[in-house]
Design goal:
Length: 64
């Protein structure tokens, strides 16, 4: 994955099974703001959700 400005590239990823081969149920997700730049995400117990952990390179920050 490379950022749109090509300044940062992440080459670390892990998928135990290719997502195209997974038989997933529709995801039920609820999100709510819990503070400045913080969101609580809740996934129903009978579904799954993809997630991404973003760690900004030193000296670079994102304002949402």
């Amino acid at each position: 994955m490379t950022t749109s400005d090509s300044k940062y590239t992440s080459e670390q990823f892990f998928h135990p099974v290719a997502l195209r081969d997974c038989k997933l149920r529709p995801t039920k997700v609820q999100s709510r703001l819990i503070g400045h730049n913080q969101v609580s995400i809740e996934v129903a117990s009978d579904s799954v959700a993809a997630w991404v952990n973003v760690e900004h390179p030193p000296g670079r920050f994102s304002i949402v």
